[in-house]
């Protein structure tokens, strides 16, 4: 008699576990989707800000009247591999750039 009662109870438990796992997977997938969308939006905002910064810096240099040596200096990024663009102003160690703490 106990076995007869245990079978439906085991089936109900198994069904509850499967439903719970399915809901948990769906919630995790939704959370990952939201995280990816937020990250993509942050990267997009960063890129827009950097393009605006580069455009402002490019307008600040009068490239037509710079000597060849000054042009090379304006376009270099300290010789970092794969780096290109304008070098920003010199800054003291520990000072912030764009409101961020310096990385160490």
In short:
Helices cover 64% and strands 0% of the residues. The protein is built from two helices and no strands.
Describe the structure.
- With 104 residues, this protein is mostly helical.
- It has two domains: 2-60; 66-104, no CATH class.
- It has two helices and no strands.
- The protein has helices spanning 2-60, 68-75.
Rg is 29 Å
Low-pLDDT stretches are 78-92, 95-104
The SSE string, one letter per element, is HH
- Oligomer designation: single chain
Q: What is the terminal-to-terminal distance?
A: 70 Å
Largest sheet: none
Work out the strand percent. under 5%
Arithmetic mean pLDDT = 78
The share of residues in helices is 55-70%
Alpha plus pi helix count: 2
Task: Summarize this structure as a short list of keywords or feature phrases.
104 residues, 64% helix, rod-shaped, 0% strand, 2 domains, mainly alpha, 2 helices
SSE layout and pairings?
Layout: H1 2-60, H2 68-75
């Amino acid at each position: 008699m106990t076995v007869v009662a245990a079978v439906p109870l085991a089936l109900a438990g198994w069904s509850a576990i499967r439903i719970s796992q399915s809901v948990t997977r769906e919630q995790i997938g939704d959370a990952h989707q939201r995280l990816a969308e937020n990250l993509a939006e942050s990267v997009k905002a960063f890129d827009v800000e950097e393009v605006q910064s580069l455009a402002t810096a490019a307008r600040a240099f009068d490239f037509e009247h710079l000597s060849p040596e000054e042009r090379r200096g304006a376009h270099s990024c300290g010789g970092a591999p794969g780096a290109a663009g304008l070098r920003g102003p010199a800054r003291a160690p520990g000072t912030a750039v764009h409101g961020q703490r310096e990385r160490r």
